[in-house]
Amino acid sequence: MDKIGIFDFGGQYCHLIARRIRELGVYSEIIYKPSEEYVAYILSGGPGTLTDSESPKLPENFFEKINVPILGICYGHQMIAQSFGGEVGRGKEREYGKKIATIKTDSPLFKGLTNNEQVWMSHFDEIKKIPKGFEVIAQTDICKIAAFQNLERKIFGIQFHPEVKHTINGLKILDNFLDIVGCRRTYNLEDWVNKKITELKREIGDNKVIMACSGGVDSTVAAVLLAKAGINAHFIYVDTGLMRLNETEEVKGIFSELNIPNLHVINAEERFLTTLSGISVPEKKRKIIGHLFIEIFEEEAKKLGEFDYLGQGTIYPDRIESAQPSKHATVIKSHHNVGGLPEKMNLKLCEPLADLYKDEVRKVGKMLGLPEKFTGRHPFPGPALAIRILGEIDKEKIEILKKADAIVTNIIRNHGLYEQLWQVFPALIPVKSVGVMGDERTYEWMIAIRAVESIDAMTADWAKLPYDVLEEISNQIINKVKGVNRVLFDITSKPPGTIEYE
Question: I need a surface site. Which of 23, 36, 321, 447 has the fewest CB within 10 A?
Fold first, then answer.
């Protein structure tokens, strides 16, 4: 199987590049040093600047030793230019967001594209002088060297990000690069599933696993994989008091329907709410929840006998935002099952889905026989409603958000919109505003509605919900949920925002 090596320089989109290459049928993996097993390399973007001596660099004499096709993106694009004698420096202004690039369509990298393409930019530094032996093949009104190439060596650099869907024909650009490389398109998820089951049998064997389950897509698919591999696993569902309305009963029903044994339901609402009392900083909330989860898991493991592994439904986006795979990445937010874990645990980790993106997880779920109602379920964060209540948490706010969440979900389903959206949910904004109800003055909380469209959670666009649907949501929340007098609609994409608020 041909492999593409993707150098990780700490960019938020690094693993999204890997996801896109896999989508095109070629296996890709994140690397930090070259190897003869790779038929080509992609150099990712990153938050660093080449003028800083501490910024990440390629291995010494990389370009002298490597003779395979190379594609540099953003920071990687600048790194190629500097390595071959070009000049990189600060631009006159930052270029961020959707831009129109004028491109040379006779370049094999841009085969099949038009002369003017929408691309996604995210940079301040830029190439000031192109190196000898390279030619410019794209520019914008701000960035005069938005892409270049050296056809003889099959080296290409692009300042914009083809891996994000805001670059309309970005996937085509990556597809063209794979054609230039001439690699075989043999990677598929069916093989991945078979190899993963074999791997679980080999690595875990007769050892016992205690698995964290929320009833969501990720943990459910991970649980089924363990069951398919014949692993001796016990599944722990912790009712934190922060779950959605009727969530606990739904989880019990899911595991019963899938015939997955050994589900243990733990009621820990009072413990979580007491520990979270007075905490308003998002990272502290996430870490508290992560630590408390592990404490409870280890306590339950002792009650049930000796366990060797802690199973989790961690997927790639969790690890990316928590900056776990990269020594260069910036932490966006800690996920309770990644950045929230304590430094020392008595259990080893088992994360069967840690290399997959959400859409890949859904496909794997279908391959394993899970019905659409499970594989199509919207993502729900591990910290649950704790990060959809901005600021401090208390019982009153939780009850408000539970009721609002049920209303939003029911209305979206009734209008046939649920399957069209990646996520839709309300969040409680801890700001009170004046309102009027029944000729009386009110002073109550705000609810923000977040609805996004995405394919992998790495990027997302805000969903353009019909006005009549928004009106129905607003009316029902205000009329049926005591303590709310104003409903807002969030129109922020990712980036610059994240899907969840905290």
Answer: 36
Q: Is residue 281 part of a domain?
A: yes
Of 436-440, 471-475, 493-497, which range is least confident?
436-440
Binding-site positions for ATP: 214-220
Q: How far apart are CA 392 and CA 282, in angstroms?
A: 9
Active site residues: 74, 161, 163
Residue 155 belongs to domain spanning: 3-181
Q: Is the pTM of this model over 0.85?
A: no
Whether 371 and 393 map to the same domain: the answer is no
Calculate the alpha carbon distances from 347 to 40, 232, 299, 335 in Å.
38, 15, 12, 18
Q: Provide DSSP, 127-193.
A: EEEPPTT-EEEEE-SS-S-SEEEETTTTEEEESS-TTSTTSTTHHHHHHHHHHHHT------HHHHH
Residues 128 and 220 both lie in one domain: no
Closest CA to 499 of 387, 375, 361, 360: 387
Tell me the pLDDT tens digit for each residue of 16-56: 899 899 999 999 988 889 999 999 999 998 888 887 878 88
Q: Tens of pLDDT along 288-308?
A: 998 898 788 778 878 898 888
Q: Are residues 219 and 348 in the same domain?
A: yes
